[in-house]
TrEMBL record:
This is Uroporphyrinogen decarboxylase. The record marks D80 as: Transition state stabilizer. CDD domains: URO-D. Substrate binds at R30, Q31, A32, G33, R34, D80, Y156, S211, H332. It comes from Massilia niabensis.
Length: 360
């Protein structure tokens, strides 16, 4: 087991565990990415996104880039949720200018029957990256590990790519729920093993991205997404060397199910921008901390407007009292067209205003 430097800034972890903080910690989903010129330069050297993500040296380099530019309170492993179905043999690739695709999506009953939990050794490049990042971060801020939710991974595995309507997977869900449940059962086992291996490698918190849970009908969400995230959480090691490893669950479009989400064993729930933070806080009470939820499009506005929206969001949450916690973030990933200076304005506004809020 590698020895890591002691943590200098644990504000993010304390907020997730609903302990008092001097200010509201902040990080951004997709904080390492194409909006940063230094990321584009490393990606050009690596040749491709997968060349970058599968090489621990490059993955470490780009994970640290946003931390060198902004006083962020957390770092997130540079990787992708689709590494898991790739390890299952589905053949992940990125066509130029398009999103992710699979060469061998799950379309027939025999495809589904042949699916297996991958050998975690085939994802060793991810765990190596986690350890290397944690080492090079040298205790500056905590490192978040992550995975897709069983349902969101299944969306890509069955559709073979991103989708607007999810016709193929929804047809399977309603016509052959037995096949759907088999995929989700395998995914839940794979995701739990994958996150536990990231924790062993040095991840100090984990996040489950349920990017497409919000595409499901009420009832279907609970049966096909929520229940499987609950199963993943129940299998996670929640303590490492005597320290709690908090788990964050983010269902995009899941605002209507927050009450149920608060009871599945997560430490914190991620929110998209459709939710009012004050109302969400009242609803979940002291069951979970909240993370979110600025509309990423606000980063296209002026620094003054960004500041005003940050203050509105922090005011909506209010000052965290004992038993509550707020981590500032966007409501979804940052756009590749975001001016980097907008992030400077956002992070500054979060730190300054949240300190002032606590001072009164
Ligand atoms: C659905 C999903 C994916 N990947 C991910 C999700 C869940 C979060 C969400 O809902 O956005 C998660 C993800 N993907 C990436 C991260 C890195 C960590 C971070 O900085 O937050 C994380 C946490 C890097 C990435 N993953 C990807 C990029 C862009 C690739 C590039 O450099 O060309 C990055 C930085 C590729 C990717 N990977 C995926 C898509 C849809 C795309 C294309 C996105 C686009 O073109 O904007 C699948």
């Amino acid at each position: 087991m590698p020895q890591f430097a002691p943590l200098k800034n644990d504000t993010f972890l304390r907020a997730l565990l609903r302990q008092p903080t001097e200010y509201t910690p902040v990080w951004l989903m997709r904080q390492a990415g194409r909006y940063l010129p230094e990321y584009r330069a490393t990606r050009a050297r690596a040749g491709s996104f997968l060349g970058l993500a599968k090489n621990p040296d490059y993955a470490t380099e780009v994970t640290l880039q946003p931390l060198d530019r902004y006083p962020l309170d957390a770092s997130i492993l540079f990787s992708d949720i689709l590494t898991v179905p790739d390890a299952m043999g589905l053949g992940l690739y990125f066509a130029d200018g398009e999103g992710p695709k699979f060469e061998r999506p799950l379309r027939t009953e025999s495809d589904v029957m042949a699916l297996q939990v991958p050998d975690m050794a085939s994802l060793d490049y991810v765990f190596k990256a986690v350890t290397q990042i944690r080492t090079e971060i040298n205790g500056r801020v905590p490192l978040i590990g992550f995975s897709g939710s069983p349902w969101t991974l299944a969306c890509y595995m069955v559709e073979g790519q991103g989708s607007r309507e999810f016709h193929t997977i929804k047809k399977m869900l309603y016509a052959r729920p037995d096949l759907m449940h088999r995929i989700l059962d395998i995914n839940a086992t794979a995701v739990a093993q994958y996150l536990n291996a990231q924790i062993d490698a040095g991840a100090q918190a984990v996040m489950i991205f349920d990017s497409w849970g919000g595409a499901l009908a009420d009832g279907a969400y609970q049966e096909f997404s929520l229940r499987y995230m609950e199963r993943v959480l129940s299998r996670l090691q929640r303590e490492k060397d005597g320290v709690r490893i908090p788990a964050i669950v983010f269902t995009k479009g899941g605002g209507i199910w927050l009450d149920e989400m608060a009871d599945i064993g997560a430490d914190a729930l991620g929110l998209d921008w459709t939710v009012n933070l004050g109302r969400a806080r009242a609803l979940v009470g002291d069951r979970v901390a909240l993370q979110g939820n600025l509309d990423p499009a606000i980063l296209f506005a002026s620094p003054e407007q960004i500041r005003a929206e940050v203050e509105r969001s922090l005011t909506a949450y209010g000052v965290p009292a004992a038993g509550s916690g707020h981590v500032f973030n966007l409501g979804h990933g940052i756009s590749q067209f975001t001016p980097p200076e907008s992030v400077t304005a956002m992070v500054e506004a979060v730190h300054n205003f949240s300190r002032r809020q606590r001072a009164v």
